[in-house]
Amino acid sequence: HFHFFEVNRCLDFDREKTFGKRLDIASGTAVRFEPGEEKSVELIDIGGNRRIFGFNALVDRQADNESKKIALHRAKERGFHGAKSDDNYVKTIKE
Hints:
The protein has 95 residues and is of the alpha+beta class. It has helices at residues 15-18, 65-77, 87-94; strands at residues 21-23, 43-45, 51-52, 61-62.
């Protein structure tokens, strides 16, 4: 299952609300998003130990509150629509 937070950077939605979540669909199935189309989807928490690696390399660690802030900053830097971050928070991490 794909971490919904990291889907196509051109899709515009509140990414913070989708952190640590995936589509609530059966494994092996998919949902297509066509240009200009608006669609509602059901999301559920990623289970297990909530370690998220791969995808678009926005998280690559345990899905917790600190990693959410870092991932939001990375997403904003990389042009993911709907990604808003507290740049001051990330600045203090880098220092």
